[in-house]
Design brief:
Elements (H helix, E strand, L loop, with lengths): L7 H8 L2 E3 L8 E3 L9 E4 L11 H6 L4 E5 L10 E5 L2 H14 L4 E6 L4 H12 L5 E3 L9 H7 L7 E5 L8 H8 L3 E4 L7 H4 L2 H8 L8 E6 L8 E6 L1 E5 L5 H10 L3 E6 L6 E9 L2 E8 L2 E7 L4 H16 L4 H6 L12 E7 L2 E8 L5 H12 L8 E7 L8 H6 L2 H6 L4 E5 L3 H7 L5 E5 L3 H10 L4 E6 L7 H10 L12
Parallel strand pairs: 2-3, 3-4, 4-5, 6-8, 6-9, 7-8, 9-12, 12-13, 13-14, 18-22, 19-20, 19-22, 20-21
Antiparallel strand pairs: 1-5, 10-11, 14-15, 15-16, 17-18
Helix pairs in contact: 3-5, 4-10
């Protein structure tokens, strides 16, 4: 018997809803997409690009326990239990608020221009051995993703990890007030979404909104014979990148709220400083000092940027009052998520290629990090380096120069061939010498044929671009090219 995530009455009360019927099966979760809905989940009929009310029938056909719908939704044949609310998103948000109120979990929230999802995943991996841990799926970091993640959180988890994103000022404030984290990480601030902000300083101010929701947690201190049990407080902590040019601005914003600041990085004044980063093709050995305490561990996913953000993970675990050594030992099992650095060996008739899938998103900072990570792949196994690059979006008037400015990173990574698509990425393509130009096209489908004709055994191919550049189909085509499909990568030193 599957344990219920919510009782029906608790859910009705939390959503401030009118019940129309009652489910006949336990409520096990929530879904906003009938294509991935699992039996027992509650379908939330959001009104977004399409009206979710059109799919209520499909949700019940797939085994939904109930559906959250607007008050004026007309019941259809085959519909099951309904929760009627003024607005389904507001109903989901109310459930999220109740989910946060009913838990004693220690909560960490992550934001930043780059590295949010990877840092969230590293926290999930590190905290899970210490107790039941709940974390956001994929990049559920917006106005529906955060409440959906909270609503799905069991009451008895020990740790919760949430990712909070934004495209405009003011978007983080309501989300952090909903999550109410004890610890907040800002991975870094970079020129991302410049189209909507105009300056990196404005981006930093928007990221600093995460401090608004910070809270302390209470830890009961046991009576040791010298007096009654008392209470000790932790949390209310901001984890900031000391190497980032916006550190002082973020620290001032945190200090104005009385938030404890813990910094990380290679800066000599960082509270958690990386003395050694031994970068390798399958991971990084890290030796760090946290407030005079030596911590050594290995990160299983390759890349200097991943190792750098692992320092924020260590600092957050310490701020949560958890066992740092036990937690970081689990980071050896960390792997890059799909679309965010996932690596696949693809068997060909006479060898293999290595595919690095960075197709989910891109900005100048993450593009440079991805190129540097590809450069760490040894040429003795994969002698030719191919970068397949799509436009980085939402960069405003500086878009052209920021794309062309990637040439130094392409040069530093010693990329042999570049395939590019999009009007902005053409600036980079035209700046390259002719022998390093593979093909350029206005859209991603235009470079697919020439790329597939060029690929041969021994290539390492990194595919990256903003989601709107549609680089994922290129990844899928490369995966299908292999006769043996994904054969994986052995981890090790």
């Amino acid at each position: 018997m599957i344990d219920a995530l919510w009782t029906w009455q608790d859910l009705v009360d939390a959503a401030e809803a009118t019940a129309d019927g009652a489910p006949g099966i336990p409520i096990t979760g929530f879904s906003i997409d009938t294509r991935s809905l699992q039996p027992g989940e509650v379908f939330v009929a959001l009104r977004d690009q399409r009206d979710g009310h059109e799919f209520v029938g499909a949700a019940f056909e797939r085994g939904a326990a109930a559906a959250i719908v607007a008050k004026d939704y007309g019941r259809k044949p085959g519909d099951g239990a309904l929760l009627r609310v003024s607005d389904p998103l507001e109903g989901l948000t109310a459930i999220a608020r109740a989910a946060r109120a009913r838990t004693n979990a220690r909560i960490v929230a992550v934001t930043g221009s780059v590295g949010k999802t990877g840092t969230k995943e590293a926290l999930r991996v590190a905290l899970s051995p210490l107790g039941p841990t709940h974390a956001a799926e994929k990049s559920f970091n917006n106005h529906w993703g955060v409440p959906l993640t909270l609503a799905r959180m069991p009451a008895d988890v020990r740790y919760g990890v949430f990712e909070i994103g934004m495209n405009h000022a003011g978007e983080i404030t309501p989300l952090t007030q909903l999550v109410r984290p004890h610890v907040a990480i800002i991975t870094t601030v970079e020129p991302v979404h410049l189209e909507f902000f105009g300056s990196v300083e404005a981006i930093a101010d928007a990221k600093a909104e995460i401090f608004v929701g910070l809270e302390k947690y209470v830890r009961e201190e046991q009576d040791r014979g010298s007096g009654p049990a008392g209470k000790a407080y932790g949390g209310y902590t901001a984890i900031l990148n000391r190497d980032n040019p916006q550190y002082d601005r973020l620290a001032r914003a945190a200090a104005l709220r009385g938030v404890e600041i813990v910094s990380f990085g290679s800066h000599p004044e960082a509270d958690l400083r990386a003395d050694v980063l031994e970068l390798g093709p399958t991971g990084t050995n890290v030796s760090a000092v946290l407030k005079g305490r030596r911590i050594d561990y290995r990160v299983g996913a390759p890349g200097a940027h991943i190792a750098q953000n692992s320092l924020a993970v260590v600092a957050a675990i310490d701020a949560l009052g958890a066992d740092v050594e036990q937690a970081v030992a689990a980071l050896v099992g960390l792997s890059a998520p799909k679309g965010r650095g996932e690596r696949s060996k693809i068997g060909l008739e006479n060898g293999a290629i290595l595919l690095i899938d960075e197709s989910y998103n891109a900005n100048p900072a993450s593009m440079r990090s991805a190129l540097a990570a590809m450069a760490g792949v040894p040429r003795d196994e994969f002698p030719r380096r191919i970068a397949v690059l799509g436009d980085m979006l939402e960069l405003g008037e500086q878009s052209g120069s920021l794309h062309e400015g990637l040439k130094d990173s392409v040069d530093a990574a010693e990329v042999d061939l570049v395939f590019a698509c999009g009007s902005s990425m053409q600036r980079l393509f035209d700046a390259l010498p002719s022998e390093r130009r593979g093909e350029w096209a206005p859209a991603s489908q235009g470079i697919l044929g020439p790329l597939m004709a060029t690929v041969r055994a021994g290539d390492v191919i990194m595919v990256k671009g903003s989601l709107g550049s549609r680089m994922a189909p290129i990844v899928e085509a490369l995966l299908q090219k292999g006769q043996e499909g994904r054969v994986g990568l052995a981890s090790g030193k």
